[in-house]
Amino acid sequence: MSAFREKSNFNLTAAEVLQKQHSLFDPSIHCAYYACVQELLHIIYAKLKITKEQFESGRRNNRDGTHGWASKLIEIELARKDTKAFRAFQKDFTELKDLREEADYSEVIAGITQSQKALNLSQSIKHTLVSSFK
Fold it and tell me: Nearest 5 degrees, angle CA 115-CA 122-CA 67?
């Protein structure tokens, strides 16, 4: 198992623990999102065999951040492989990203509803990715 896959699993577990055992909903959303970002990086490096140097070069050339560039690379692959998975990923990842940005950057405290939605989206995204990149 790659370090990014392991970190992804850690963050998903942390999201569940923060929500269910401690009612810490904003950090739970944060962890749910990063579980997906780390899964994207696992796929990029381990499955697509893109090197760190290639990834960084592409990111800089496209003037994008790590999260944005990683999701674009995965979207390109998913669009090529499976249109249904591509659409599901695009919708779910955008929604999860919006929840994470609100949890991290707004003055509103998230509740159980937003936290559970983030967990559900994260699990769905990870399932789509694992199924699509065996």
Answer: 105
